[in-house]
Amino acid sequence: MIFDATVDGRTLRVEVQGREGRYTVTLDGSPLEVELAATGPGCASLLLGAESHEVGLEKRKEGYAVHLRGMAVTVGLAEAARSASPSAGRAHGPARLTAPMPGRVVRVLEAPGAEVAAGQGLVVIEAMKMENEIRAPRPGRVHEVAVREGQAVEAGTLLAVVG
Predict the structure, then answer these.
(1) Could you confirm whether domain 2-78 is CATH 3.30.700.30?
(2) HEC-encoded secondary structure of the chain
(3) Side-chain half-sphere of 88: how many Cα atoms within 13 Å?
(4) What band does 81 get if pLDDT is binned at 50, 70 and 90?
(5) Cβ–Cβ < 8 Å for 153, 94
(6) Which sequence spans correspond to the domains of the chain?
(7) How many CA atoms lie within 13 A of 137 on its CB side?
(8) In the CATH hierarchy, which fold is given to the domain comprising 80-162?
(9) How far is 31 from 151, CA to CA, in rounded Å?
(10) Which of 69, 94, 117, 152 shows the smallest number of beta carbons within 10 Å?
């Protein structure tokens, strides 16, 4: 999954690969090995290299507040790019939207055959007690919805196809 994150006015290109709590997170081309385990509602244990951190996550209108070491940092996510696979940026052919992280599908917002606008919500996934709306990367028709409400998904699981 590739998306843009804005932290303190600075935008970073973020790529996340992996599953089941073990990820390689690449920030502006610099890779970092990360292990993540939910420890409670909106809380997680984060292992970055050899350093362990307790992190709190809070959904806000402008993105997320990340609580770490007694500080809160607001992180905004670029909606169109955050859930799309690399194929989604192409102007032709179907865009395959995949789960950005392990979680549970809480709502399917559009059915196959629906016409959608760029940025329109398609599927909502709950991960670590926070809901993440997966949006259409461009306008088109929903060709396939590959998940159902209540289904557990891993990072990279196909959610929908828009073309």
Answers:
(1) yes
(2) CEEEEEECCEEEEEEEEEECCEEEEEECCEEEEEEEEEEECCEEEEEECCEEEEEEEEEECCEEEEEECCEEEEEEECHHHHCECHHHHCCCCCEEEECCCCEEEEEECCCCCCEECCCCEEEEEEECCEEEEEECCCCEEEEEECCCCCCEECCCCEEEEEC
(3) 28
(4) very low
(5) no
(6) 2-78, 80-162
(7) 25
(8) OB fold (Dihydrolipoamide Acetyltransferase, E2P) (2.40.50)
(9) 31
(10) 69
Angle at 120 between CA 162 and CA 136, to 5 degrees: 30
Six-digit token string for 158: 């196909």
Phi, psi of 85 (to 5 degrees): -80, 165
Q: How confident is the model at residue 12 (pLDDT cuts 50, 70, 90)?
A: confident
Q: Report phi then psi at 105, rounded to 5.
A: -75, 120
Alpha-carbon torsion angle 147, 148, 153, 155, nearest 10: 40
* Strand 22-27 with 10-19, pairing: antiparallel
**Which one, of 30, 24, 69, 83, lies nearest residue 48 by Cα?**
24
